[in-house]
Specification:
This protein is α/β, with parallel strands linked by helices. The chain has one domain (2-119, 126-171): Alanine racemase (TIM Barrel), CATH 3.20.20.10. Helix content is 41%, strand content 18%. It is built from 7 helices and 6 strands; from the N terminus they run βαβαβαββαβααα. Strands 1, 2, 3, 4, 5 and 6 form a 6-stranded parallel beta sheet that branches. The longest helix has 14 residues, at 54-67. The two termini are 17 Å apart.
Length: 174
């Protein structure tokens, strides 16, 4: 079972993890470097969807190896791209995305690059056509990004699950 999860308090994660040991957690949201070890300590962490710079990628890579010294398990990661250019959003600028993807693939052997992630501009009117922030991802050429695009296409259907999880968590978990 794969479940996307919002960052919950450590107590909530522990409670849910004890009752649902088969959940594989995906971390979504801004990851501060001082919180990496806490996030990597979540039982059954499966993926971090918000790698936004080389420093964070390297930090997560090294911390994951310390937590899993056998080196058999790689942590799945998405590279977050700030396609809207909004200052209040995290992510690598579009023109630097290929470099970050290359860094993850070539310099972070404990991470498995699985795709790209972006958050479109808040309040975009879908009656105006497809959101250009998401269109931008599909127009990125280049080798690493073509691989990323292919992997990201497989994950697009997951978004609806996040909204259902938010509603479920607000109402409690049964």
């Amino acid at each position: 079972m794969v479940l996307l999860a919002l960052w919950l308090s450590g107590q909530s994660v522990g409670l849910i993890a004890s009752q649902c040991p088969n959940i594989r957690w995906h971390f979504i949201g801004h990851l501060q470097s001082n919180k990496v070890n806490k996030v990597l300590g979540v039982p059954n962490l499966n993926c971090i969807e918000t790698i936004h710079d080389e420093k964070l990628a390297t930090l997560v890579n090294n911390a994951w190896l310390r937590a899993h010294p056998d080196g058999k398990t790689k942590l799945k990661v998405f590279v977050q791209i700030n396609t809207s250019g909004e200052e209040n959003k995290n992510g690598v600028p579009s023109d630097a995305a290929e470099g970050l993807v290359g860094h993850v693939i070539n310099s972070c052997p404990n991470l498995e690059f699985v795709g790209l992630m972006t958050i479109g501009k808040y309040g975009y009117d879908m009656s105006q056509g497809p959101n250009p922030d998401f269109q931008e991802l599909s127009q990125m050429p280049s080798g690493h990004l073509q691989e990323a695009q292919s992997r990201s296409n497989q994950s697009r259907t997951i978004d609806g699950h996040v909204h259902r999880l938010r509603a479920c968590y607000r109402g409690g978990i049964n």
